[in-house]
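Example 5.3 — Methionine aminopeptidase
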Amino acid sequence: MVEIKTDAALEAMREAGRVVARALAAAQDAAAVGVSLRELDEAARAVLDEAGARSPFLGYRPSFAPTPFPAVICASVNDAIVHGIPGGYRLRDGDLVSIDCGAELDGWTGDAAVSFTVGTPRPADLELVEATRRALDAGIAAATAGNRVGDISHAVGSVVRAAGCGTPRDFGGHGIGRRMHEDPSVPNRGRPGRGFPLRHGLVLAIEPMLIAGGSDAYRTDADGWTLRTVDGSRAAHFEHTVAVTEDGPRVLTLP
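Solution (predicted structure tokens):
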């Protein structure tokens, strides 16, 4: 069932979104050559604790996962697309890092992700990050009342295809509100004019995931969580929680 949020709920979700933005910023600020992914998780966790927010990631166990997720962020490096578990891996010069984070505050949830490079970047990685950011911007721009979910999917997918990239099958955006994952699903490819109609109060997590090699295929690590590119090419991931309003799309996970 799709829940349409009241204006008061949108304001509450905006507060949760601010916490997410601060947690992502803390994790990115902590990222440097030699720093472990676990330390990035600790930086984000401190922000959630200070805000009195709960992590919707910690302990989360969807049907595909063999174990509950053990951290408050997903930290995916280089050929890892999403769902990377932040452990003892220490960042190296030139790494491409994607951080995904959520926060639940006063019963409402925000979810966002960012990709960035550490140390000296590869030009191709900068192009991939920029293409992923453009895909997110295109998806947000399409999140207007009167459109349909397919318009968002088509907007994202058009940027993915124009960049010569792939996007993993079976994974995309989603509704969000009282829980991190709600209906409707928001694929990263689709046909315009199709799908659930967008109206004031609908809140969606729009999250393009781009694979540089152009394939949509992925494989899952032995941990049961981390998704990796099959061809070893790099991947990037951006996400915002976005409310459809009569005045246009409102991004709830900005600082």
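Remark. The radius of gyration is 17 Å.
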